[in-house]
Amino acid sequence: MDGMAEPVAHPITVAIERRIDPSRTVEATSWMQAGTDLAAGFAGFLGSGWVRAGEGSDLWYMLYRFRDIPTLEAWEDSPQRSWWLDSGRAFASEVRVERRTGIEGWFDAPFATHVESRHPGHATPPVTGPVQQPIPAAPPRWKQAVTIWLGFFPTNLLASWLLGFVPGFAEWPLIARVLLSTVLLTPVMTYAVLPWVTRMLRPWLQREA
């Protein structure tokens, strides 16, 4: 409808828990990497990674992030991903899937919030072994704000000091200085500083109040 604002697009982080045949971990490692390489070729791809729950565990966690829902669904509904999933069915079974939006995706522990199935008609494989304790949800907003500030302040301070050595930088127009600093600092904060700070502060972030 004319005059209505377009919905704001948010990056989408998808976390997938899978059970892997312990006797085929070498194949699974190559398979996971192949999935990451395939996803990286799609528009809107912002990053991916995977970890094992423990050295002796058969639980593996994979995360990938896309610019918005349309770019995410282009990957998830692609024939390339379908082929990749089929190639791993002999040793990998999907247990559950979670989607998270916005910056809170950095603060949520895996599977701390809403869990959805990509195939509602298929039964979820039974989970054997000890029952896992509930994982706390995202910390309160004030803790998130403190965490972001703790990462941003020293990063911005260091960047401002380093940019001071750029000849003539102090005479640049304010908008140009701010533009350059934000272009430099945004990827540093997103891919390096913020993940590291949240990892260091995880016990405090997950503590109640």
TrEMBL record:
Residue spans crossing the bilayer: 148-169, 175-197
InterPro entries: ABM_predict (IPR038762), Dimeric_a/b-barrel (IPR011008)
Keyword Transmembrane: yes
Keyword terms, alphabetized: Membrane, Transmembrane, Transmembrane helix
Superkingdom in the source lineage: Bacteria
Protein name in UniProt: ABM domain-containing protein
Source organism of this protein record: Microbacterium trichothecenolyticum (Aureobacterium trichothecenolyticum)
